[in-house]
Amino acid sequence: MTCECHDNVPQYTLEEVSDHCHPDSCWIVYVDKVYDITKFIDEHPGGFEILLEHAGTDATSVFKGTGHTKEARDMLSLYFIGNLVEEERIYKNKFQKGKKCRSCLRKKKDDEKKQSISETVNTIVNSKTINS
Ligand code: HEM
After folding, report:
1. Could you report the per-residue pLDDT of 60-82, keeping only the tens digit for each?
2. pTM, two decimal places
3. Which residues form the Cytochrome b5 heme-binding domain (predicted)?
């Protein structure tokens, strides 16, 4: 039932995440995904204290509850390190099979573009070879 896009990333239990609850190693869970935000602590516009208060925990509701903007949600991907193990996920619908995440859809589009460019280049090269 996991998202095909993210099957190959490390999986962590909530207990493992809970070991990373200090400034030297600060992880949080957001919507069943695990983020290492250690490098971000000092840059957080809402201050470092609040991050450390929730370090090592599932911070989904508190992150949502503090009304973060789309920019803040997008920033999370910079710190993504893996998923919660399947049996501890509570947002299973986000990982449904066949449902691609945004970054995978973007990658698919890029791959299609590259493919089409390389086909065009091949056509040009072939026609030049034939004509020469
Ligand atoms: C433990 C969970 C978190 C809590 C409780 C929290 C709390 C807050 C609060 C209270 C503010 C408002 C600051 C103000 O307006 O004075 C804020 C702003 C902000 N936070 Fe967090 N934060 C959390 C995690 C994160 C994470 C993981 C990121 C990004 C990786 C992030 C990015 C931001 C950004 C960019 C802002 C500026 C306003 C915005 O764009 O939403 N926060 N945060």
Report:
1. 999 999 999 999 999 999 999 99
2. 0.75
3. 9-85
What's the pLDDT tens digit per position in 21-36?
Answer: 999 999 999 999 999 9
- Tokens representing residue 68 in the block: 């973060």
Q: Please give the residue that has the higher pLDDT: either 130 or 92.
A: 130
Contacts 24+ apart (CB under 8 A), 39-43: 39/79, 40/75, 40/78, 40/79
The structure tokens listed for 69 are 């903007």
Q: What is the DSSP letter of 12?
A: E
Determine the distance separating the centroid of ligand 1 and the alpha carbon of 112, expressed in angstroms.
36
Distance 46 CA to ligand 1 centre (A): 5
Question: Phi and psi dihedrals of 57, rounded to 5?
Answer: -125, 175
Q: Do 27 and 83 meet the contact criterion of CB atoms below 8 Å apart?
A: no
Sorted by sequence, the CB contacts under 8 Å of residue 130 that are 6+ apart come out as: none
**The amino acid at 8:** N
- Is the shortest distance between the CB of 50 and ligand 1 below 6 Å? yes
Q: Report residue 52 as tokens.
A: 């450390």
